[in-house]
């Protein structure tokens, strides 16, 4: 009898059927096909609206932020509320005290001399109150008062105290400008005077004790104000009358900086070819090439404020000159005239001999310099006072007043 394979008995009829797909039209209570398509389109539109809603809210918030920029209404240099608080707490600077009340138990404030002080932002403190903010015109008036009646006053001394007062009040002016997002000509006028004041202070107070003057803090604020000023120039298509001056000052102050050099090279050709900027570029190139003789020679063509911006690099230039000469003229039989070296260093003969002594460069009794690369030694920190070697800058000040220098009338 024939045996049947069990596998043959498991035919298609014994296979498990796949679940039957039911079309949309066969489903119970299913909407018509056109209505289904309409529902999908409405759902997609809802999703698009949900995605666009955050974008619209951001735009609305941005417009609302622009509309709510605070505008100052204080028409005095110091808000009345702050004036009263500082008077009752005996926190008035003696530059702000009413004449005749200095020896009183509680000196009174002079509303015509009191200036809003800088205050650090604090939690819960409202710094956007219009009554405490000064509009741009009042801010410019305040800066002019600080320059003419405080910084340029011959009766107020010492100048380190004058600097501390003006520096703090200028920070307060900058704070009001930032809160109100001040721009335009008033902003440029304020920043220009601030930069000139800080550059002049960096020269005049050079070498003062750190408790009275910190050059790093001064440098930080000078760089911030200078950067803001250059940005203001960049946003205007027309050339500002003082743009050439401050572009050159920025390069001289940051001599050798790749960033400052690149900024100048990206200026329009008509501005880059201006005499002051071309001179600053020549000095910068000589400095990068370590040619101190050319740097010092070109520096004699600068005006007073430009020399103030450059003065912090003069010590490095003179040090490089003595180092190069110590290698180039290193010989026992070589004698270099001291008066000729003084001309190259832009110093008088006694200061030149003193500078050589600081770097262990031998000066003979017959006023000749004996260079030796083995004898050249870096002076100890604090022994070389930059202020002693400011003659190239001091000669250019002559009869210039502080007010004319800071206002740009020099």
Global outline: globular
| Average of pLDDT | 87
Give the low-pLDDT segments. 1-5, 7-14
Give the radius of gyration: 36 Å
N-C termini distance: 130 Å
H and E order: HHHHHHHHHHHHHHEHHEEHH
| Residues in helix, % | 40-55%
The number of helical elements comes to: 18
- Using DSSP, what is the number of strands? 3
Question: Structural class of the secondary structure composition?
Answer: mainly alpha
Strand content: under 5%
Main sheet specs: 3 strands, antiparallel
Side-by-side strand order of the widest sheet: 1-3-2
InterPro entries: SAC3/GANP/THP3 (IPR045107), SAC3/GANP/THP3_conserved (IPR005062)
Biased composition (Basic and acidic residues): 26-69, 102-119
Protein name: SAC3 domain-containing protein 1 isoform X1
Organism: Lates calcarifer
């Amino acid at each position: 009898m024939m045996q049947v394979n069990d596998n043959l008995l498991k035919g298609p009829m014994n296979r498990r059927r796949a679940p039957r797909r039911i079309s949309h039209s066969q489903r119970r209570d299913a909407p018509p096909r056109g209505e289904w398509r309409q529902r999908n389109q409405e759902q997609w539109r809802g999703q698009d609206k949900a995605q666009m809603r955050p974008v619209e809210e951001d735009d609305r918030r941005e417009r609302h932020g622009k509309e709510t920029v605070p505008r100052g209404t204080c028409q005095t240099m110091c808000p009345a509320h702050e004036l009263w608080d500082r008077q009752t707490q005996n926190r008035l600077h003696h530059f702000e005290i009413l004449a005749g009340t200095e020896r009183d138990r509680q000196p009174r404030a002079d509303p015509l001399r009191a200036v809003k002080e800088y205050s650090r932002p604090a939690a819960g403190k409202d710094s956007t109150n219009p009554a405490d903010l000064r509009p741009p015109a009042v801010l410019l008036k305040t800066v002019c008062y600080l320059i003419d009646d405080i910084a340029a006053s011959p009766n107020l001394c010492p100048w380190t105290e004058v600097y501390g007062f003006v520096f703090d009040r200028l920070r307060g002016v900058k704070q009001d400008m930032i809160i109100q997002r001040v721009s335009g000509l008033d902003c440029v006028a304020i920043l220009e005077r601030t930069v000139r004041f800080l550059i002049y202070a960096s020269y005049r107070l050079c070498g003062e004790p750190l408790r009275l003057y910190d050059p790093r803090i001064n440098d930080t604020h000078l760089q911030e104000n200078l950067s803001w000023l250059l940005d203001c120039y960049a946003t205007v298509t027309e050339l500002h009358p003082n743009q050439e001056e401050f572009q050159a000052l920025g390069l001289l102050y940051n001599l050798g900086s790749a960033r400052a050099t690149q900024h100048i090279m990206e200026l329009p050709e008509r501005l880059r070819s201006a005499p002051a900027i071309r001179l600053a570029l020549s000095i910068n190139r000589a400095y990068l090439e370590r040619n101190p003789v050319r740097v010092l020679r070109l520096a004699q063509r600068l005006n007073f404020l430009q020399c103030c911006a450059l003065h912090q690099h003069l010590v490095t230039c003179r040090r490089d000159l003595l180092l190069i000469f110590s290698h180039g003229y290193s010989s026992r039989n070589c004698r270099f005239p001291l008066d000729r070296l003084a001309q190259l260093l832009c110093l008088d003969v006694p200061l030149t001999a003193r500078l050589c002594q600081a770097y262990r460069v031998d000066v003979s009794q017959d006023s000749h310099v004996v260079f030796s690369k083995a004898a050249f030694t870096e002076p100890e920190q604090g022994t070389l006072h930059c202020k002693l070697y400011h003659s190239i800058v001091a000669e250019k000040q002559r009869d210039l007043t502080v007010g004319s220098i800071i206002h740009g009338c020099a």
